[in-house]
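Quick illustration, no need to memorize.
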Amino acid sequence: MSMAHRPSDETLAAFAGGHLDEGLALVVAAHLELDGESRRRMREFMAIQGELLDRIEPIPMAARYPAEELEPHSAIATPAESPAIAADLPAVLRPYALGPWRPIGLRIAMRRVEVPGADSRVFMLRAGPGIALPPHKHTGFEWTTILAGAYEHQYGRYVVGDFDEADTEHDHTPAVDPVEGCTCLVAMTGKVLLQGWLGRLLQPLVRF
């Protein structure tokens, strides 16, 4: 596990407070399932937020809803509510329907993760050993948790459990591990902008 590739404090605080889009939150939750240090940091944020809430004067709530509807809940559905899922996938994916793997290029495949109500697009991406993706940037966020294998780009090497938090400021050229390949969970807002002559040829084919 890389010491460098974890969510920013701002991202973890937003996750702890329930302020993230559900698709983005799902990718953070997958990372948290795999990384104990990030879970420890998140508990610290939750403790701080709890202390702040304790200092707020409580306001009585009108009894307009059944008590069971007022139970606290997470933006990520609990595994107990969900169907079975493959043992090699994070448990946080259990509440969500997974589409079939579909090829989107030479030795590259994608499967959609249906997250109702999310503004981001969520999918799993699988690339064979040694695949080099075209240079690209984004008009929004691209958050990635590595589930198997590894890849690297200008900002470092990312292995199982690592979190890659890219935005409009990041241009990168991912290269997949030449032995292990890579499988990752991705949430994306905005568009992918492929660069270079090959990228311009492929741009009309990009649909995720």
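The longest strand covers residues 142-149.
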